Amino acid sequence: MALVTGGSRGIGRAIAERLAGDGALVALTYSSDESAAREAVARIEKDGGRAVALKATLGRHGDAASLWAAFDAEVAAYAPLAAAPTGVGVDIIVNNAGIGRSADLAALTEQDFDEVFAVNVRAPFFVVQEGLKRLRDGGRIINISSGAARLAMPEIIAYSATKGALDNFTLNLAKSLGPRGITVNSVAPGIIDTDVNASWLRDNPEAEAQAASVAALGRVGQPEDVADIVAFLASDDARWVTGRVVDATGGSGL
């Protein structure tokens, strides 16, 4: 059983599809685009997997409790296979949902600062806090960070800071949850061809070439590139990996 926040499109959708393909029942969340979420579920089911879509507006007080209440309700039919002492059990939590703010120190508003930290840091913190009641021993927590956390990028200073905070959250969780056999890792993508980047990247050969040149591997990343790394960390093959930030930038900034 897996929970993937922001799983209706982009990297989150690729993660949801890959985990479902590996046999997990996937609960994917969406904020507003219900049609995209239902399309993602339909695609997973068409490929023989199992998934449910949960509406979850993150970045607000009480968001984690509401999310997990919806999780319990939607996957209740599978409860005999996924029972836990509190609510329905879960094996994998992927904190993927996030927002960006393209502003430097001078331009960033207090509202934008609060919003990006609420969605990118506070929400994962409390999703995990509430989820630990359900997460089984030997489970997995995977936080989707960013290569921006290790680079100086003043034009997205707040976004980068949230990902640095998320990586530190990963480190501390790995230490505290290790006795339960739970591994916690971050995956840090670089430039990925998703809908978020479509306005400047797609159908723009010059922009694509520039983005590709940043990576040592010489191309723009695809959502599946990140999803495959997440799948590895979620598997038993990664049982001895915890507290790490796994670079998924294709060697950007080397």
Jot down its keywords.
seven-stranded parallel beta sheet; 7 strands; 254 residues; alpha/beta; 8 helices; Rossmann fold; 42% helix
Notes on the structure:
- It is a single chain.
- The protein is α/β, with parallel strands linked by helices and 254 residues long.
- The chain has a single domain (2-192, 224-241), classed as Rossmann fold.
- It contains eight helices and seven strands; from the N terminus they run βαβαβαβαβαβαααβ.
- The protein has helices spanning 10-21, 34-46, 63-74, 110-131, 157-177, 198-201, 205-214, 223-234, and strands at residues 2-4, 25-30, 50-55, 90-95, 135-144, 183-189, 245-248.
- A seven-stranded parallel beta sheet has the order 3-2-1-4-5-6-7, sandwiched between helices.
- β5 (135-144), α5 (157-177) and β6 form a beta-alpha-beta unit.
- α1 (10-21) crosses α8 and α3 (63-74) packs across α4 (110-131).
- The longest helix is centred in the middle third of the chain and has 22 residues, at 110-131.
- The chain is globular.
- The protein starts with a strand and ends in a 6-residue tail after the last strand.
- The mean pLDDT is 92.
- InterPro entries: KR_dom (IPR057326), NAD(P)-bd_dom_sf (IPR036291), Sc_DH/Rdtase_CS (IPR020904), SDR_fam (IPR002347).
- Residues 3-194 form the Ketoreductase domain.
- This is SDR family oxidoreductase.
- It comes from Streptomyces crystallinus.
- Belongs to the short-chain dehydrogenases/reductases (SDR) family.
CATH architecture: 3-Layer(aba) Sandwich
Number of domains: 1
Through-space gap between termini? 37 Å
Proportion of strand residues:
15-25%
Strand order of the largest sheet: 3-2-1-4-5-6-7
